[in-house]
Amino acid sequence: MVVLARDEANADATVSEDGVRCALRRHIPLALVGAVDPSPYADFAAVISPGFDEVVAAAERAATSPLAGHTGVARAALRTVLEREGIDAPDAEVSVLRHGTTLTVTLLPGVELDPMVVEAASVRVLGAVRALDRSATIIDVTLGHLVSAAP
């Protein structure tokens, strides 16, 4: 993750913030701290913390929070598979976390799934996340719910 600590609010990016733009292009979580309003990075920050008292806590939250964009595309892919299979799972969720250049995707369908559906969902979700983030070296898709036994 990257921390941007600003001592003055500014609606424009500065030359010294090139590293932040590079990190965001690679989907690295951003903690925005200090003078945060206005900021061109507010819409992209995983964590926003006004002031400098909580820099370490903000950095830890940014590093351990699910990636919003990745989670959104992964959730949509999972729900597409479930709907196609006729599975009613309105609470199906996904969590995507970054650990260095590795993404861990956890499928949380909220219902038991046949192993073939798990496989289809995993492939579809992997493709959706890879299309969004080509800089991840490894994308590990896991299931956070028990799989039903094959018939």
Question: How does this model look, in words?
Answer:
- This protein is of the alpha/beta class.
- It has two domains: 2-64, no CATH class; 68-143, GMP Synthetase, Chain A, domain 3, CATH 3.30.300.10.
- The chain has four helices and six strands; from the N terminus they run E-H-E-E-H-H-E-E-H-E.
- It has helices at residues 18-25, 55-64, 68-84, 115-132; strands at 2-6, 30-34, 47-50, 93-99, 102-108, 138-143.
- It has a three-stranded parallel sheet. It has a three-stranded mixed sheet with strand order 4-5-6, covered by helices on one side.
- Helix 3 (68-84) runs antiparallel to helix 4 (115-132).
- The radius of gyration is 18 Å and the shape is elongated.
- The chain starts with a strand and ends in an 8-residue tail after the last strand.
- The mean pLDDT is 90.
CATH topology descriptor of the largest domain: GMP Synthetase, Chain A, domain 3
Determine Rg (CA atoms, Å). Answer: 18 Å
Number of helices: 4
Strands, total number: 6
Number of structural units classed as domains: 2
Mean pLDDT, as a whole number? 90
Q: What is the CATH C-level name of the largest domain?
A: Alpha Beta
Report the span from N to C terminus.
44 Å
The computed structural class is alpha/beta
Strand order, sheet with most strands: 1-2-3
Beta-strand residue percentage: 15-25%
Q: What sequence of helices (H) and strands (E) makes up the elements?
A: EHEEHHEEHE
Spans of at least 5 consecutive residues with low confidence = none
Main beta sheet: strand number and arrangement? 3 strands, parallel
Query: What proportion of the residues is helical, as a percent range?
Result: 25-40%
**Overall 3D shape:** elongated
Q: Assign the CATH architecture of the largest domain.
A: 2-Layer Sandwich
